[in-house]
Structure formats: C-alpha cells, structure tokens
Amino acid sequence: MRRILCIGDSNTYGYDPRGPFGARYGADTRWTELLDGWEAINCGQNGLCIPRAPEFPDAAALLRRFRPLDAVMLMLGSNDLLCGASAETAARRMEALLRFVAAEAGDARVLLVAPPPMRLGDWVPSRALIDESARLAAAYRRVAEAAGVAFADAGAWGVALCFDGVHFSPEGHAAFAAGLSAALNA
Length: 186
Prior knowledge:
The protein is 40% helix and 16% strand. By secondary structure, the protein is α/β, with parallel strands linked by helices.
C-alpha cells in the first residue's frame, strides 16, 4: 500500500467540535483513515499555523521519520487566517514551507491542498473572513505552480462544515477523503 504523510491542522487531526476540547472523531470517520489505496500517516495538530523558517527542521524530522513515502500532503492556512493573516500572507508563508518540503521529500510526490472556504459559524463571525478564506485556493494554486508541486482545491469537493464554520463534519470528512483519493489516484 502507498504511504502518504499528512501535515495539517485540526481538520487533518480529526477534531470533533461537538465534543470537549481536543475531542477527536473516531478512526472510522477521519478522512485520513478513509483514503482509497493509501496508508495515511496523520501528523495533524490542533491550532497549527504554517510553520516559519526556524521551525522547518520539524518538517524535515517528520519526513525522515516516516520514510519511505510515496506522497506528502500539506493542508494548512485556516488558523493563519483566523489569527488575522490575509490569504496572500498565508500563501507567502506556505511557499517557503512548500519549497523546503519539496526539496526534502526525495521521490515522494508533494501535494498542496487548499482547505475548503469557511462559512459563518461560531468561529467565523464575519463575511470578510469567509471571503479571505475563499481567496486562499487561488493564492495556493500560484504557489504550487511556482514550486512545481501538485495542487488540489478542497473547496471543489463539497466538504460540509460543522456549526463552527471551520471544522469538517463527519460527512465532510467522507467528502474530503473521496476528493483527495481522486486527486492522489489521478
């Protein structure tokens, strides 16, 4: 079975906003467990923003720890936006990380995934934040093309979000898994 390292935030971790802080969906619900034909190594962390250059050794350590890998998927940026960054700022941060990961990944395919746009909810009180999250996909597409890595837009996969406007619902995890499986297997 092919192996993919999944670097992301709470939506990769499988955070369940319906439970107590830090609650996690069961393995039968998390998208990382539902990928068709792939063994996913889930390195999602709640609250993770795009690491900056001094933190890149952490990414290198992950890549070394889990070799051999067939693919590396990065999906970050939502927390950056929630903390006030613009889509362009998040894209600049991602570009530096993406170039580093691509150089360290060896023969593994690198895939940048733009998270689905946010919607109004408990964590997303303004239309401006929704609009900024919708701009992230175009900014990430440009970054992926410049870095020579694959790109996918999870906003095109019908990923349902929970009441908070950020986290995947159980149905959203299934839709994300189907969309990512198709992107990886194309």
